[in-house]
Amino acid sequence: MSKIAPCLWFAREAEEAANFYVSLFPDSRIDHVQKNVIDTPSGKPDQVLVVSFTLAGQRFMALNGASHVEFNHSISLAVDCADQAEVDRLWNGLADGGKPVACGWITDRYGVSWQIVPTILIKYIADPDKAKAARVMQAMMQMVKLDIAGLEAAYRG
């Protein structure tokens, strides 16, 4: 088990958000729902305080912090995708109520930023042939949802 788990702050949607995320990723589950034991700014006794959950093997926490705090792009969750089917499935799931941004970035319905990235992109932009890497970067910069066929075409020139 990892020592570090990102904690996502929600006003009151922690359990709803955790269930949504768990529905999108294999090897995911709700691990524990902790309810308030006393009145707190987060809610009354027996209302959800913290949800511990696992996404694709990574631990997370979702906290009902009572007040709304905006998420922003300064932190995002990057997802390594094996193929276009995985890119499409995750993109479409996160786009439900969310907002596509650019270059594989998407903001979900809760305001959390995600990067949905095909594994091959990292290989292509790290290629020692700088012309190939540059073509791939140029192609990526024109995309919203990343398209592996388009990245491959740019790589081949």
UniProtKB/TrEMBL annotation:
The keyword NADP appears for this protein: no
Name the InterPro entries for this protein.
3_dmu_93_MTrfase, Glyas_Bleomycin-R_OHBP_Dase, PhnB-like
Instruction: Name the Pfam families on file.
Output: 3-dmu-9_3-mt (PF06983)
One GO molecular function term of this record is: methyltransferase activity
Cite the SUPFAM superfamilies for this sequence.
Glyoxalase/Bleomycin resistance protein/Dihydroxybiphenyl dioxygenase
Q: Which CDD domains match?
A: PhnB_like
* GO BP annotation list: methylation
All residue ranges annotated as the PhnB-like domain in the record: 3-117
Q: What is this protein called?
A: Putative 3-demethylubiquinone-9 3-methyltransferase (Glyoxalase superfamily)
Which organism was this protein described from?
Rhizobium lusitanum
